Amino acid sequence: MEEQADTDGDLAMALQMQEEETMAAQREEQARERQHVAAREAMEAASALGRADKEMPPGTRVRVDGRGDGTVEGFEGHWIGANEHKIRFDGAREAVDVKLRDLDWQVLGPAGDGRGY
Questions:
Q1: What is the DSSP code (8-state) at residue 15?
Q2: Phi then psi for 105, rounded to 5 degrees?
Q3: Is the pTM value of this prediction over 0.90?
Q4: How far, in Å, CA of 70 to CA of 52, rounded?
């Protein structure tokens, strides 16, 4: 009888551990999904700002047709004409001023992400 109780206890403990592992995996997946949603929302917000010729968050990754991929480092607004976004293109030593309003471009990743999407 004592052996049966030990077996039942071991089985109960194994089931509990399995349930806890499953719940932990679900929490991790939910956290990854929240991060993905937040990154997508940040990219959409940065894109909307840029399309409105307004300042995007420094660190935003962009791809500019004819120029390549780069990182937004700053912004200079102008009363007349297109505003200038300061972008350091990959492999370049210094950032350059780019009038995105006049070009085809897209956001690759949110500020601080470093991955690009």
A1: H
A2: -155, 165
A3: no
A4: 19
